[in-house]
Amino acid sequence: MIIKKNLGEDLNVAEQLKLATKEDHKMVEIEMRSAELFSRTFDRHRYQQHLAILWNSYRSILDNFEPYQCNPIIEKYTSQLNLDEAAILGDLKDLGAKNHITKRQPILMNSLEAIGAVYVLLGSSMGRSMIGKKLSSSIADWHSSPPKYYSQNESEIQLFQDFKTELNKLKLNHPQLEDMIAGAKKAFQVFRTVARNHYETKQTISE
Ligand code: HEM
Question: Which CATH superfamily does the domain covering 4-199 fall into?
Answer without folding.
Answer: Heme oxygenase-like (1.20.910.10)
